[in-house]
Design brief:
4 helices, 84% helix
């Protein structure tokens, strides 16, 4: 996250987001800078309008709250279905175990006749 924050600081101050500036900001903050991460971030932000991305991100919570609630509902439904499936599976296992007991009991009875 600190790499993204450094890019946001550079954007806010109007400085160019390049490897040197990003490395300077991170170093000033006491971050152990990884050159590969700096290069990857600079490359990823090359064609991105950061101001537009910030505006889109700011708009997400208003619409995202409904989506988050829908996701929570979907998770709850999935959990209920999973619980029901587990219960059915346990009941079927008990029935199979009962059947196995009957069959094994008959087999033993035949051996000792």
């Amino acid at each position: 996250m600190e790499y993204v924050y450094a890019a946001l600081i550079l954007n806010e101050t109007g400085a160019e987001i390049n490897e040197d500036n990003l490395t300077d900001v991170l170093s000033s903050a006491g971050v152990d800078v990884e050159e590969s991460r700096v290069k990857a971030l600079v490359a990823a932000l090359e064609d991105v309008d950061i101001e537009e991305a910030i505006e889109e991100a700011a708009a997400v919570p208003a619409g995202g709250a409904g989506a988050a609630a829908a996701a929570d509902d979907a998770d709850a439904d999935a959990d209920e279905e999973e619980d029901e499936a587990e219960e059915e599976g346990a009941e079927e296992e008990e029935e199979e175990d009962d059947d196995d007991d009957d069959a094994s009991g008959e087999g033993l009875g035949e051996l000792f006749g």
